[in-house]
Structure formats: C-alpha cells, structure tokens
Design goal:
heterodimer; A: alpha+beta; Aldehyde Oxidoreductase, domain 4; five-stranded mixed beta sheet; 19 helices; 25% strand; globular; B: alpha+beta; Ubiquitin-like (UB roll); 5 helices
C-alpha cells in the first residue's frame, strides 16, 4: 500500500480560520463606495401573459437610478443548458410565481423596494398546470412554446434504460411487487441566500461577484446576454454559504440583472435575497411519482424490474433533463436483473421550477427502489441485508445498462460493515413483533450506487494552475468552486503530497475567471476526482521542473534523488533545502509555473436503446437507520444512524466525514419533515418557520465508516462522496419506520399525519404567504 | 436616537432610528458583518449574539433594547493574542466548519452554553444548539468541538479563557 505524507492524514480546512472568526466576506458582506441596491419585481401569478409593463413610474421614485426588463438583454436574455428555455427576466409571459419581471437599482434597499412597487405590471392570468399527471392531457394548458417535433408542448424529456423483456420475466416470477412511490420537492435551504454584486469596469465590461457554483458558466451566460466579449466579463467567487446544487440558474439571473444595472448606471450594484424571496424564486429538487414492479424467485433472486417515473420539472427545464437521465440510470438500484426497463418522463407544470439538488435524480429514485427492495425481501421472508447481498453488484458483474464492472465495487463490503457496526441482526430480531401501542422501535437499511461525475451528460474535464512565488509559497487555482465542500483543502493536500512540501506553503485561491482555467460546472460530486486529478497533474508538471533543478544542483541523475521531508537528498546524502532548489531552478531559467488538465475516461450512452456505459466509476454505500415511533402522535425520532461509504479513497478525512454527516442530515429532513407545498402554484413554506430542516436535536449521533475500493484512475484511488452521502438516508429511515409500525409510507415525507393516520390531511393553502414573501400582498 | 451600550468590551454610541433591529445596527451601521442574516424571523440563529452573556437572535431584538447592556458578537470572540480562542480553534480542529455561514452563530451558541453549563453532555450540547440551523455538517463535528472545549476548560484555570 502506498505511503502518503498528506493523503488520508489529518488536515486543517484552508478557510476554517476566516470562517470561525467571522472575517470571511460573503456576498452580503460586501460594501463598495457608491454601491446601489437592486431588487426584482417578481410574478405573483403562476402562469400569465405580461400585457403591460411600464417602468417609468419607478424611475420617478426618489433614489431609484435604473430599471431593467427583458428588453435590456441580448437575445431577450435567453439562456439554459441543455434546454435553452429560460430568460434572465420573464419574456412576454411568466410561468411560475416568483419569476423575475423587472429589476430596480436604487441608493437604498428601501428605495429599490419602492421602485419595484411603483412599476406598472399588468398580468393576464392563463390557465395553469399543477398536476404533472395531467400535464400531457390533450387539452392541458400550454406552458412552453410548441415543439417542432409535434410532441405535446408540456413534454420535456424521456430517458430510458432497457435490458431484455422484463414484462415476460415478471409473468414468470412467483413473487411480484407492484407499488407506487412518490417524493416531494425539496428546498436546498442553504443558510446564505442568493446574491450577486456587479462592478462596472473602465473598459466597458463588468466584474461580477456571485454566490454561485460554476463561475465559468456564469461568465459565458453573462457574455451572451450582455452582448459583451468574454474577456470583458469577469466572474469572481466569494465564499459561498452552502449550495447543494441550488446556486446555479437563479444566481445567473441575479448576476445578469445586477450586471445590466451596473452597466446602465456605471456604479456597483448588489442584490441579496431575503429568505422568503429566496424560497419563492429559487428552484427546488424535482418531485417524482414512481411506479415500480419487481419480480423475484422464492429463494430471493431478483429477476426483473420495471420503473416508470414522472418528474415534475415545473416551469422551466433547468437541469431536469440531466436529472431525469441520472434518475433513469440509478432507478433499478445497485442490483443484477435478467431484464429491466426504466422510463423517466419529464413534464412542465407551473409548480415553481425544478433544478439540481444533491443526488440529482438518484435521491428520488433511491427512495422508491430501496423501499421496493425491502418489500420484496419481506415477501420472500429474507433478511433485508441478506437479500441485498444476494443480489447486489460485484466486480465482474454486468450492470443492467450493459456495463462490465471491472474494479472498485465496495458495495458488499459496505453492507457487511454496516450490518456489523449497527448491531443489525440483534436489533432486527428484537424489534420484530413489538406489540406496544405507544412507542416502538425499528431498524432499516438502504444501499446505493452513484455514478461518479457527469457521465454521459457532457464533456468532463478540469484544470488547475500552479506557480512558485518569490516567497517560496505556492499559488494554486482550480476552475471549480469550494462552496463548503472542502475541495480547496483537498487540492492543497494533493499538491503538497506531489511536491513533497508543507501544505502551509500552498495558497489555494477561489475561482476567478481571470486567473483560473475553465473546468466545467462544479456539480455532480466531481471536484475531488476531476479537480483533484487536475491539481495532481499540475503539481507533477511543476515537480518535474524542480526535480531537474535538484538533480542539476546535486550533480546526480533524476533517479538518484530522494526526499527527506521538504529537502532533496542526492547520492552523497547531503540535504538540499527545497527553497534552494527553487532558487536554482530560477537560476537555470526554468519556469516555475505549470498547469494541469485531466479529462475523464470516455464513456458512451445510447439514449435510443437505453444501453451503454453511463459512468466511468460508481460510488457505493449502505445506510442503517434506527427509529423510535410514537404511535400516539406519529412522531418519528431517528435514534441511531450508521453510514458506510466507498468513496474509493479518503483524501481529507475530516471533510469526508463531514460530507457524510451533512448528507445524512439532509436525507433525514427529506424523509421526515421537509415539505414543499405548491398550492395552485403558490409555495406555502416561505421561511424556516414553515419549512423545517433538521436541528441538532433531530439528527442522532452518526457512525460513519469508509470502505476504500480504490479506483485506478482517481487521484490516489478516490472517486466521490458528497452526493451519495445523502441518497440512501431517506429509504433507510422509511424502512425502519415500516419495521416499527408494520405499515409502509410510500409518499415522502413521513410526516406526523402519514405516520399516525396513514394518509394526508388536506393542505389547500392561500396565496397570501407567498405574496407577503414577495412584498406584494 | 442615540444608543449607548458596550460592544465587544468597548463602549459604543450609535445614532440610529429606533425601529431597526440589532442585526441591522451591527451589520449596516457598525459594519460588523460577522453576524449573519439567514431568515430574519428568529428561526435560524445565524444572527446570534450574546447580550449580557445570554444568547439572542439579533434579528428579533430592536436596537434600542441593548441600551446600557453588554453585547458580544463574533468579532469579540478571540484569544488574548487576537487569534481564535479555544472554542474557535476546536471548531477548526474538529472539522466543524463547512460553508461557514452558520458558524459565527454556532460559536456564540457554544459560548453561551459553556457559560451556563461548563460540563455539558452531548445531548445538552445538542439542546444548546437547537436554535441554530446548519445545513452542511449534520451538527456532529460542531458538537465534537464544543465537547472538547468543555473538557479543556475544566482542566485549566477559568481566567485564562476567553477575553
């Protein structure tokens, strides 16, 4: 086993000090001289035509300096990838409550709000679609433009996986499960709301600071809609107060709005969101309805799966096409089947809009399939972990997609480990057959696989730059953002490892499109493997130069060099300090800056046949949850949690454990309390008093452990960890509730009424809360 | 109106309208931006400060209410040498920080708890953090950091601690 000096060892997070002292400057902490405050006018209707928009009255409000609308952008502010259906501000109509229509810049936040109130905006209501099941009805109101292929305009996408003929196999199976599961939208609930600050430059361009995930995509979007060349648009990444997939589209829009206002007023313009505006205007995790059929032999051999999912994308496509694709790939779970058909359909509605959220489709389908797997295990009277071990993927297996798994499959180890550390067998036995009508316990398991990085979503690469400064510090960049994940610390450790230096020499910058290299989006848990490999390549390129200088200085061949801490040692065993080697490299005229790029291995996916190699590697994991259910109130308390993950290799242990703990917390919220209600398109939960996320009292002590099934092409064997940590938590909890109560809750979240009564209570809310949140009602 | 109080150990006198919150007073008038705004309705705890040693959501306190009282914000939590104090250092060492937005509030919640309960159990620490939301960490490393600080403080003289 390789011996490392940094990798897998304790390390201090590079930005922890500035954060514990309160010195870290987040977007809302920026105050520039002459800065204006921006505020958007947002739609109070879920679907409407904009029949009149008069901004002149706003300009008459004292302190208001500029107002913009869709007309202030090139190409009407059109943006979006892979489907270009969104606008930086509404174009001719609005498709969801909270959609921006105009934006005002003023000397004070109060004047900006008064300016927004003064805008004359007449909306003519249009019939709307709130039930995704009826989005494709022949008479359904049309949300988007007509499609050139003649399909229903509310149809967005269909993704499939196909292996043989599961319907025939199901007919042969003695045990068949046929159930419907549903998940709810989920709010990211990053503690820092959205925001952007634009500063006009003397050259006629703009510098934008945004609480954003992917600065290069922001730069590209801004250049397009502002009609500026890319080199006049600079995006700088301040610290980001949480993201979880949620800080893309809405921040592109806010950034474009403040940029246009800054260009118009020649002054810095900042927009920050109150919590209500953030929750009403931002995209959510999509809601899915899933019909699952599983067939098995009486001995517990899984044979066939059909999975039909309906994904509510809301008003715009955002990332839903990719979400649907990732959902389709993972829908059948990490198991072998003789035959398997998955079909995920994606439709437009007027329920806000759905976009990226940690887990990205897999969180949704895992909640269904891992309950369904449990139900089949019950039906054949097998232990839930034995059943999974009997059917799960191993090295040498072919997945239902047709991919041969040749390495790095830690799932059986994860399942065995979580069984042991949770004391599963004893508790599972003990909790079977409880008769109390007051409080009962249950324990449940869920497994997962999760494709690493983008897969067949698109080209997959990242880049880093590295240079040695005159004070012998190292400046390192990456095009990927650390929005709390710890990736800057991971890159620092990797570079220190490769160069054989003290990590304190490394100054890892935040992304700035003027200094970092384009690296694609910061999504899909790709930072460690893509960005980490890029940093490693950059460091190795620099190390090569320094090794040459050291060999020259020590008068030896490269292969004779060894290292003793930072120093180089030659054949005569003299120690040459690293700083001296740096000096010598400069004397030799060698360049002490380098860059590194890493491109992911080729993969292919046939969208028509639903077959191929969707991802170059997979993360595996297994969670066990132990719950206490109060049968008198429906209250579920998670009293124990065990999470075992195979991230390939742990580089930054503290960060990896933190990802698992945080992921479990978000999954616990998803399972039990996080409820997004769109009542006729109006969000009912507009702040943390209604939208409940887990507190320190809701999350139990979590016991996390790693199984390191190294991946040959990952940095030191690493794959990914952030998204997978969340994915199986909810079904593990739901399976535990089922054991405790003997009753299954197939609709998330398992709130009090569903646990106590077994059904929903009507929640027909008014638009009042939502309008008050937008300061318009 | 003029509001006079002690802020992070120093006398402070600020001219401010009577209807602004302590949070706005701190952030907008005094430019102490370590205190964060997360919800403005007293649910998230990102704006936590100590008033006379007790934990408050500064978004729910009107600025004039601190007249004559002692307010400590994250800027007032330091070691005597100006670096992080023992609790902040433990937040770093134990990995309690991810995005960091809730962290100033968490540090103050930890200080308030340790003043009230120098030897808390993990369950008591969790109860002490119940008014402070964190979306990144699952709280576990934060609990670790506060627990470790309590242990260390019990083994060293009290006057060597926070400023």
């Amino acid at each position: 086993m390789a011996q490392y000096t940094q990798i897998g060892k304790p390390a201090r997070r590079v930005d922890a000090l500035e954060k514990v002292t309160g010195k870290a400057k987040y977007l809302a902490d920026y105050h520039l001289p002459g800065m204006l405050y921006a505020r958007a006018l947002r739609s109070e209707l879920p679907h409407a035509r904009i029949v009149r928009l008069d901004t002149a009255p706003a300009l008459a409000i004292p302190g208001v300096r500029a107002v913009i609308t869709n007309a202030d952008f090139s190409d009407r502010g059109s943006y979006g990838f892979p489907v270009k259906d969104q606008y930086m501000m509404a174009c001719e109509k609005v498709r969801h409550v909270g959609e921006a229509i105009a934006a005002v810049a003023a000397e004070t936040p109060e004047a900006a709000l008064a300016g927004v109130a003064a805008i004359i905006c007449e909306l003519e209501p249009l019939p709307a679609v709130f039930d995704p099941e009826h989005a494709l009805d022949p008479g359904a109101p049309q949300i988007g433009p007509s499609r050139p292929d003649g399909k229903h305009p509310n149809f967005l996408d269909r993704e499939i996986v196909h292996k043989d003929d599961p319907v025939t196999v199901l007919a042969q199976c003695p045990v068949v499960l046929d159930e419907v599961y549903a998940t709810c939208h989920q709010e990211h609930a990053y503690l820092e709301t959205e925001g952007a600050l634009a500063v006009p430059t003397p050259e006629g361009g703009v510098t934008v600071y945004a609480s954003n995930q992917s600065p290069f995509i922001l730069q590209g979007n801004l250049a397009n809609v502002l009609g500026l060349p890319s080199n006049l648009v600079r995006a700088i990444q301040p610290p980001v107060g949480g993201s979880f997939g949620g800080k893309d589209d809405l921040n592109y829009e806010s950034s474009a709005q403040v940029a246009a206002l800054a260009l118009k007023t020649h002054r810095p313009v900042r927009m920050t969101f109150p919590r209500e505006e953030s929750m009403i205007a931002s995209y959510k995790r999509d809601a899915m309805r899933m019909h699952v059929r599983l067939g098995a032999e009486r001995d517990g051999t899984l044979r066939a799966c059909t999975f039909e999912g309906l994904l509510d994308s809301g008003a715009y496509a955002s990332q839903s096409v990719f979400t649907a694709w990732r959902a389709s790939i993972h829908a059948m779970g990490a198991y072998k089947y003789d035959a398997c058909d998955v079909e995920i359909n994606c439709v437009y509605t007027n329920n806000g809009y759905s976009g990226a959220f940690r887990g990205f489709g897999n969180t949704e389908v895992c909640a269904a399939i891992e309950q369904a797997i449990d139900e089949v295990a019950d039906a054949v009277a097998m232990d839930a972990i034995d059943f999974r071990l009997k059917n799960c993927l191993r090295v040498g297996d072919e997945t239902p997609h047709g991919q041969l798994l040749t390495e790095s499959v830690g799932l059986p180890d994860c399942l065995r480990t979580v069984r042991r550390i949770s004391d599963w067998d004893r508790k599972r036995r003990e909790y079977a057959g409880q008769t109390s009508n007051e409080v009962r316990r249950g324990i449940g398991v869920a497994a997962l696989f999760h494709g690493t990085s983008l897969g067949a979503e698109g080209s997959d690469y990242a880049a880093s730059t590295i240079s040695v400064e005159h004070d012998y510090s190292i400046t390192l960049t990456s095009g990927l953002t650390d929005y709390g994940t710890g990736s800057r610390t991971v890159y620092t450790m990797i570079v220190a490892e490769e160069l054989g230096i003290n990590p304190e020499r490394v100054r890892m910058l935040r992304p700035d499109t003027n200094t970092a290299l384009e690296s694609g989006p910061t999504v899909a848990s790709r930072s460690t493997i893509l960005g980490g490999n890029a940093a490693r390549v950059a460091a190795r390129n620099l190390a090569q130069v320094l090794d040459l200088a050291a060999a020259d200085l020590l008068g030896c061949d490269l292969h004779q060099l060894i290292r003793s801490q930072e120093s180089y040692v030659g054949p005569s065993e003299e120690l040459m300090p690293w700083t001296r080697v740096v000096d010598h490299a400069r004397e030799m005229g060698l360049s002490l800056s380098a860059h590194g790029q890493w491109t992911a291995p080729k993969i292919r996916w046939d969208h028509h046949d639903g077959r191929g190699t969707p991802y170059f590697a997979y993360h595996f994991g297994a969670h066990v949850a132990e719950v206490e259910v109060d049968l008198r109130t429906g209250k579920v308390q998670v009293v124990g949690f065990w999470a075992v993950h195979d991230p390939g290799k742990v580089i930054f242990p503290q960060g990896a454990y933190g990802q698992v703990y945080g992921g479990v917390g978000q999954g616990l919220g998803y399972a039990l309390m996080e409820q997004v209600t769109f009542a006729n398109g109006y969000l009912q939960e507009t702040n943390f008093d209604e939208y409940l996320i887990p507190t320190a009292l809701d999350i139990p002590e979590i016991h996390a452990q790693f199984v390191e099934a190294e991946f040959s092409q990952g940095p030191y064997g690493a794959k990914n960890v952030a998204e997978p940590a969340l994915v199986p938590a909810a079904p593990a909890i739901l399976n535990a509730i089922a054991q405790a109560t003997g009753r299954r809750i197939r609709t998330l979240p398992a709130n009090l009424e569903r646990v106590l009564l077994g059904h929903d209570l009507p929640r027909e809310g008014p638009s009042r809360q939502c309008k008050r949140g937008l300061r318009i009602g | 109106m003029q509001i006079e109080f002690r802020l992070n150990g120093q006398p402070a006198a600020v001219e401010a309208p009577p209807d602004i919150t302590l949070l706005d007073l701190l952030r907008d008038r005094l430019h102490l931006t370590g205190t964060k705004e997360g919800c403005s309705v007293g649910e998230c705890g990102a704006c936590s400060v100590l008033i006379d040693g007790q934990l408050y959501n500064s978004c729910l306190v009107l600025a004039p209410q601190v007249e004559g009282r002692e307010v400590i914000t994250i800027e007032g939590i330091t070691a005597p040498d100006g670096g992080p104090n023992d609790l902040q250092e433990n937040f770093i060492v134990h990995g309690a920080v991810q995005c960091g937005f809730c962290i100033p509030g968490m540090v103050l919640a930890g200080e308030a708890l340790l003043r009230r309960k120098p030897n808390p159990t993990r369950a008591e620490i969790r109860a002490g953090l119940a008014g402070n939301l964190c979306r990144c960490t699952g709280y576990q490393h934060i609990v670790d950091a506060i627990e470790a600080t309590a242990r260390q403080r019990l083994s060293v003289p009290a006057d060597a601690l926070i400023s």
